[in-house]
Amino acid sequence: MTDAIAVAQRQLAAVAIARQAGELMRRLFVDRAGIELSFKGPQDYLTQADAAVERLVRERLAEAFPEDQFYGEETGGSFGDSVWVVDPIDGTANFARGIPHFCVSIAYARNRVPTIGAIYNPMTDEMFEARRGHGAHFNGKRMKASTVSDLKLSQVELGWSSRRSAADYGRMLRQVLDAGASFRRGGSGALGVAYVADGRSDGYAELHINSWDCLAGIVMVTEAGGWVNDFLAGDGMSKGNPVLATAPGLRDAMIRATGIGADVVA
Ligand code: LIP
Predict the structure, then answer these.
(1) Which of 47, 75, 86, 90 to mutate to test the pocket of ligand 1 (most atoms within 8 A of CB)?
(2) Whole-prediction pTM
(3) How confident is the model over 151-160, as pLDDT tens digits?
(4) Of 142, 176, 200, which closes a domain?
């Protein structure tokens, strides 16, 4: 089987499994089952639903592609040359608090290159998907990054977690606001990056994010004509890194405002 067919089959599977995971997430969210709140750390939520959804995704992928490696936010795994990187519920805090802004994020990387992404929000029935070299699509329609090129006309999302200090976040926020942008924070990094691919948001920046939160969206932004920093530099795949995904016309301004990707700007 050629490589191209193998990757195409994986994209179809990723979308189908994301939809199956979404059906489970929606049921658990509506029934409020599996929402026993616990914390992995300060502001780092974990619910029984996370574990149940990850189990479904891991089992379905292992059935279809037993030769691939798997890494999930909740159960870990291994990073290899043909690896699935999964966040079963991205936006767990929203899920736990009854806010319908969350998704399952399924990414596939081949030889450390982000190759496939599938992000599904079951509450809005929104499927974002992309395959490297074959475009990015939202519910079957081609996605295109925003054409905004002036921060004073932009709206960007600044992801937050307790993995970096309040002072660091405050500094980035101040710089972005001083540059004239308006900002939001939705609580799901995966949806935040996918929105950049779909042109709904002009940028997404976060001072530290994990690969399972953003890898699927990175494929989408790249395929939709947006710009993304070198997220996988160093040990980004296993330890995370800062991420900046922007409309192409805002790249330099967002690099200056956030300090992410500064090595790129002359
Ligand atoms: C989320 C991340 C994001 C962060 C959110 C949250 P989780 O992950 O996607 O980086 O901004 O606060 O941490 O924990 O919901 O899967």
Answers:
(1) 90
(2) 0.95
(3) 999 999 999 9
(4) 142
